[in-house]
Amino acid sequence: MAKFTAKPKDLIHIDFKNPRTGWMDTPVDIREHMYCHPTKAKDLETVGFPNIHEWRPADENWNLPEDWKETVLNGIKERLQKYRSFHVFMDICVRCGACADKCHFYLGTGDPKNMPVLRAELLRSVYRKYFTASGKILGKTAGARELTEDVLKEIWYYYYQCTECRRCSVFCPYGIDQAEITMIGRELTNLVGLQLGWIGGPVANCYMKGNHLGLEPHTIKSNIEMMLDDIETITGIRINPTFNRKGAEILFVTPSGDLFAMPGIYTAMGYLMLFHELGLDYTWSTYASEGGNFGFFSSNEMAKRLNSKIYAEAKRLGVKWVLGGECGHMWRVLHQYMDTWNGPADFLEVPKSPITGTVFDNAKSAKMTHISEFTADLIKHGKLKLDKSRNDHLKVTFHDSCNTSRGMGMLDEPRYIIKNVCNHFYEMPENTIREKTFCCGSGTGLNASENMELRMRGGLPRANAVKYVHEQHGVNMLANVCAIDRATLSASMDYWVPGVGVAGVSELVGNALVMKGEKERTADLRGETLPGKEGAE
Amino acid sequence: MKILVPFFAVIALVLLAVIGTAANLHFLFGAVIPYAALFIFIFGVIYRVLKWAKSPVPFCIPTTCGQQKSLPWIKQNKLENPSGTLHVIGRMALEVLTFRSLFRNIKGELRDGSKFVYGSDKWLWLGGIAFHYAFLIVLLRHIRLFAEPTPAYLYILEAFDGFLQIGIPRLFATGVVLLAAAAFLFLRRIYVPQVRYISLAADYFPLFLIMGIAATGIIMRYFFKTDIVGVKELAMGLVGFNPVIPKSVGSIFYVHLLLVSALFAYFPFSKLMHMGGVFLSPTRNMVANSREFRHVNPWNYPVKVHTYEEYEEDFREKMKMAEIPVEKE
Fold first, then answer.
1. Would the CB atoms of B116 and A107 count as touching at under 8 Å?
2. pLDDT tier at A1 (50, 70, 90 boundaries)?
3. How far is B55 from chain A (nearest CA, A)?
4. The CATH number of the domain where B297 resides is what?
5. Upstream peptide bond of A263 is cis (omega within 30 degrees of 0)
6. Same domain, A151 and A209
7. Given pLDDT bands bounded at 50, 70 and 90, which one contains residue B159?
8. Nearest CB to B281: which of A174, A207, A209?
9. A155 in the same domain as A285
10. Record: contact B106-A436, CB cut-off 8 A
11. Looking at this predicted complex, what is its ipTM?
12. Do residues A113 and A207 both lie within one domain?
């Protein structure tokens, strides 16, 4: 595969003209840099996925299993009976087009099959052909079509050009949620062995080793110890967190991305410093060392299998409740799925802040609270000593993650925190934030390197809004509460808006947090010298 | 093709009714078909709704469009992120009665080849709401034909509807609005390239039907006046299951009636079922309190997991080396 070299000024020429042929008569063109490589057979074997086989998206022949068509059709039938959402969404779309220009992939590619309505029609047309009277009788006139190999390839190509961000669902008059349809469409592709490497690999890692990155227990500990060294250098304070400790009050779970790469590790340093300063009785786990869930991007069952570790570990360690770090899809899963899959967690207690006494009633059944809810409560009660000026070198804007906004509604907690730890905060235009926020463009397991054109195109609407505040207010830091954002927005900023960094909210908290017995800080968590402290050392 | 097929289908229906009345098949077109259409409509809609309802709702998946309920001092958006049944009723009422989500519509455009701008775009909302409310009032006005004596509220409705005070018989605004709104929705489908690209024959057919219904209704009332006494006689006969076919009613009425019958019979098989579906949409009709109260999935089943014991088996030595506590030494 040739390297992706397109320049931003070329990529932004987006052609919104539709092809001359109708969409059913326009064959799918599987383009380089727009898709991810297939997964390795051994990863699929680890988790027991069906129909494992060798194939390459660019090839004519995908080596599909002989009964692939039957498998897919039975898969559709089963899911119609299991999910009212899917059944209703297959039937009631009136094709009004309100969703069309809401999708970041449509805005970034101009490809009509990336309009959510048309992405859904790719599957709906098959549904009509095999499951509705009008489709069976009238065929194409009723918008129905045969399921062929080309149709399956088309569904595969476009269902991995959707990040399940739910922005279309906000604008749909019936709440039709393409995320729901994409999830089911992806399950169908998995039934016939068409999994992506960037999803299959992390899933297998998470299943066997407890986290997507495949960090083994001693590596988790040593990675954190490196952060502790940095914290000591910056603050003069040595922190001693615990791992897999029984009897701790709180189990802390965060995406493994926070433990591995920049800028995620700065967010993790923020957590460590905050918990130390509070004297929190908590523990990390190496077994439940992943908050995120790439199983969610392959099948409902796989997601449940990975998610089971959080409650299981909470039970084994005998903690009272679970605190979760900053991550987007992790919180969709924890907020809307975990308790249903693996609850009831009746062995845990309703989360209660040991510092403020606040009882988190909104989590009284799932027993898991978000770090931003926890921190906002601390700040409100005046429990943290904060020096905002230590973030004065940053002009910050906040990116709402798709899932924490549209699958949870956590909008004001992180903003409250940022306003209390930073002096310079600027919102992006109102149609691009909160429930109308744009995806980073690389969620749902699409954060690979071989699909860089897709990622940059999908990330364009978000980056374009950042560019606006960068030019208007000199914004140089994009804050967020998502590990995938921290990884992917960094790439997207470098490409579209050079000069803007990416940080987790807890990193900004760590910068501002005045710790008992700390030395005078001359650098922020990144080791960059604070303004006015040049030459202090 | 996507436009012509449904167009000629409606023309064929018109011709069918004209030929039918010329061939003296009044009973077929005035009683048998309307009864059959109504039967298909009622049982079809019930069947479709029950079929949807039979599929369970395994997960609590509301699309949250506002601030969640969390800390007491953070203001929750109860209508966009409902944490109680009353909030959901409010959210659904806004959705069904005012088309809340469509009202949010914004248009995204790339300007100067480098800047995305998003502006409010309420035309679709306006067309949609005008269309649906006009249709509703027109439908309610027709109750006059099926009730004796005429219910009092209909006089009030008609007084409002005829507020323009034009012509004899007085012009009802809704009939015109219905036709205009349907025409707008049709033109929008043709002129907006994206919408044209996604449109199917099944999108044009009901629009042509409804435009035909509105047009024939308007013609009957204001131009080639139909014998309204005869129409009422026929309608009352249908209601009393004692159909009478008055001689005085002309073929234009039968065209109108056949198009209405076609719409009713087509309804359960089509996207028009969005009328029922909007109430069943899990992203809108669920309470967003999934961490507060456990949502139960009726088909939740045990899955194969990788247990802690298995994990420790794999990593015990490494854990011990790193001084991470283990269960078995």
1. yes
2. low
3. 5
4. 1.20.950.20
5. yes
6. no
7. confident
8. A174
9. no
10. yes
11. 0.95
12. no
Sign of CA dihedral A258, A262, A263, A268: positive
Percent of chain A predicted with pLDDT > 70:
99
Are A254 and A189 in the same domain?
no
**Nearest CA-CA distance, residue B188 and chain A, Å:** 9
pLDDT in tens, B185-226: 999 999 999 999 999 999 999 999 999 999 999 999 888 888
Interface of B with A in 132-171 (CB under 8 A): none
Residue A526 pLDDT grade (very low, low, confident, very high; cuts 50, 70, 90): very high
CA dihedral sign of residues A23, A122, A435, A382: negative
How close A534 comes to chain B (CA, Å)? 38
Within this chain, do residues A465 and A488 fall inside the same structural domain, yes or no? yes
Residue A227 pLDDT > 80: yes
Cis check: omega of the bond before A8, within 30 degrees of 0: no
Give me the mean pLDDT over the B300-321 stretch: 97
Structural contact between residues B304 and A48, judged by C-beta atoms closer than 8 angstroms: yes
User: For residue B24, is pLDDT > 90?
Assistant: no
Q: Is B55 in contact with A80 (Cβ distance < 8 A)?
A: yes
pLDDT of residue A530: 92
Structural domain of B256: 4-321
Checking if the pLDDT of A537 tops 60, the result is no
Task: Provide, as residue numbers in chain A, all residues whose Cβ is less than 8 Å from the Cβ of B200.
Answer: 95, 142-143
| CA B143 to mean position of chain CA atoms | 21
Where helices occur in B142-281 by DSSP H, the ranges are 143-146, 152-161, 173-191, 193-198, 201-218, 228-239, 251-266, 274-280
What band does B148 get if pLDDT is binned at 50, 70 and 90? confident
Strands (E), A28-150: none
Count of domains observed in chain B: 1
Last residue of a domain, one of A168, A194, A220: A194
Residue carrying the six token digits 């299991």: A82
Instruction: Count CB atoms within 10 A of the CB of residue A52.
Output: 17
Section A254-274 average pLDDT: 96
Chain B contact set for A112 (CB, 8 A): 194, 197-198
Task: List chain A residues with CB under 8 Å of B291.
Answer: 334-335, 339, 362-366, 368
Q: Determine whether B221 is exposed, middle or buried from the number of CB atoms within 10 Å of its CB (0-12, 13-18, 19+).
A: middle
CA nearest to B279 within chain A? A174
Q: How many domains does chain A have?
A: 2
- Three-class SS state of A253: strand
Q: Do B106 and A365 touch (CB under 8 A)?
A: no
* Domain extent at residue A495: 202-512
- In chain A, residues with a C-beta closer than 8 Å to the C-beta of B197 are 18, 22-23, 112, 118
Which one of A178, A194, A210 terminates a domain? A194
Q: Does the pLDDT at position A536 exceed 60?
A: no
**Chain A contact present for B315, CB below 8 A:** yes
Beta bridge partners of B257: none
Query: Are A233 and A173 part of one and the same domain?
Result: no
Beta carbons of A12 and B114 less than 8 Å apart: yes
A341-383 confidence digits (pLDDT tens): 999 999 999 999 999 999 999 999 999 999 999 999 999 999 9
Q: Cα angle at A291 between A322 and A454, to 5 degrees?
A: 155
- Between these two residues, B159 and B55, which has the higher pLDDT value? B55
Residue A421 has φ and ψ, to the nearest 5°, of: -115, -5
What residues of chain A lie within 8 A of the CB of B40, using their CB? none
Interchain contact, A98 vs B269, CB within 8 Å: no
